[in-house]
Amino acid sequence: MFLKRYGFLIAVLIGAAILVGKYLYMQPKFINGEVAPNIETNLISGEAFKLSDLKGSYVLLDFWGSWCGPCRAEFPKLKALHEKYAGKTLKNGAKLEVVSIALETSTKVDRLAKVIEMQGLDWKYHILDPINGSLFDAAIATKLYGVREIPTKYLINPDGYIIGVNLSYEEMSNILEKAL
């Protein structure tokens, strides 16, 4: 009798709990004001990379994948942001650096380099972060930042603190305009 009377309500509550749980699970690991974890890896060029070496610059970490339609759809806005601020000196001599972190099932750097060239992503810092199928936890930088979906972006200030997670390009541009 209880299930007949309250079964629908129980099903709705279970569904809501699942949706809330998924939402919380998908949230990035860090929020504004936290210190950005240091990434130490190699760029696709083979050059050693440490995020901490970019301290003193604004850094946009862009987690993406060549197989990700929404990521590729954002490229024009990402390129426009980079072009607008590349080479400009912001407050205290800071620059904007974009660090692209590609989540790929293939570890073929030449394949990724072709995608980067075709898309015109002409900044220096490109990282291949191999994933295992759809398991992002296998990727080092991705796991470090708790990225569960892409595209995901972190904006880091010159002092190494996260000042924005998944901001719109307009919001990022506003922050950088204030830093001019």
Topology:
Blueprint (H helix, E strand, L loop, with lengths): L1 H25 L13 E3 L5 E3 L7 E7 L4 H17 L10 E9 L4 H11 L5 E6 L9 H6 L6 E5 L5 E4 L3 H10 L2
Helix pairs in contact: 2-5
Kindly list the characteristics that best describe this protein.
180 residues, alpha/beta, 5-stranded mixed sheet, 5 helices
Give a short overview.
This protein is an alpha/beta fold.
Description of the molecule:
- This protein is of the alpha/beta class and 180 residues long.
- It has 5 helices and 7 strands, in the order αβββαβαβαββα.
- The protein has helices at 2-26, 69-85, 109-119, 140-145, 169-178; strands spanning 40-42, 48-50, 58-64, 96-104, 125-130, 152-156, 162-165.
- The strands form 2 sheets. Strands 5-4-3-6-7 form a 5-stranded mixed β-sheet. Strands 1-2 form a two-stranded antiparallel sheet.
- The relative contact order is 0.21.
Query: Can you summarize the main beta sheet?
Result: 5 strands, mixed
Strand content: 15-25%
Task: State the separation between the terminal residues, measured CA to CA.
Answer: 68 Å
Total beta-strand segments: 7
* Tally of helical runs: 5
The topology string of helices and strands comes to: HEEEHEHEHEEH
What class, by secondary structure content? alpha/beta
Percent of residues in helices comes to 25-40%
Q: Main sheet: which strands, in order across?
A: 5-4-3-6-7
Runs with pLDDT <50, length 5+? none
Shape: globular
Q: What is the CA-based Rg, rounded?
A: 19 Å
Estimate the mean pLDDT confidence.
Answer: 86
